[in-house]
């Protein structure tokens, strides 16, 4: 946690880790709300979130030539499907994946790469006691490839995205903890194969290779759970002098949240009607 943005004495804490009590649209609306709040309160927040099986698509994915059939495939595989409001391409969420959002104030004064690097440093710090070297560079044949893919020995277990609203920045990471990375990647590979249907596209979609995607329990060759990792992170923060204060939305924040959630729902109405 050496990064300048993470030299904090206090963090608000939100744990939305019960997959039966939250949905992905609410999660993105919540991070937008916390960005708006951070800009006014000058407070930082860490939020953990876990969801039922969901394929989170990027805007370019919605333009696949055979998108209707591709979405049908995902729903037939018991995955909900939504389009997110931040950048990137398709990712898979489920109960074995922990999402972490770090929300900072004054986002406009923070270089976008600084936000990404803060999350990279944070994840490396979380696992500094494990015998692995976590690197950040693009794994081109992973799903949702990007400059700040996190990998061990060339195999990706996490991806980082960033969302800026008003004067707040939310840096989000998904950490594949439990299960099989290659099985999740195969789901996305099939989605693109069906969605492209061998047609030429202006946008270059990833040629997903399931063998380059792993989970942390596969990398570490030992059982891990999302619950245990959340406890570890909270304990590690507290042991390093960070005061964690459970966050409850106030009346203004609740109003912002409802507006952002409605925006997300409207964006997804067409997809949800399929």
Q: Explain this structure to me?
A:
By secondary structure, the chain is α/β, with parallel strands linked by helices. The chain has a domain at 4-56 and 67-132 and 158-177 and 221-272: Bira Bifunctional Protein, Domain 2 (BirA Bifunctional Protein, domain 2), CATH 3.30.930.10. Helices cover 36% and strands 22% of the residues. Strands 7-8-9-10-6-2-1-11 form an eight-stranded mixed beta sheet. The chain is globular and about 55 Å long.
Topology at a glance:
Layout: E1 10-16, H1 24-41, E2 45-49, E3 54-57, H2 67-76, E4 80-83, E5 91-93, E6 97-105, H3 112-126, E7 135-136, E8 150-152, E9 155-165, E10 168-176, H4 181-196, H5 216-220, H6 226-239, E11 243-246, H7 251-272
Parallel strand pairs: 1-2, 1-11, 3-4
Antiparallel strand pairs: 2-6, 3-5, 6-10, 7-8, 8-9, 9-10
Helix pairs in contact: 1-7, 2-4
Keywords: Acyltransferase, Ligase, Transferase
Active site: 144 (acyl-thioester intermediate)
InterPro entries: BPL_LPL_catalytic, LipL, Octanoyltrans_LipM/LipL
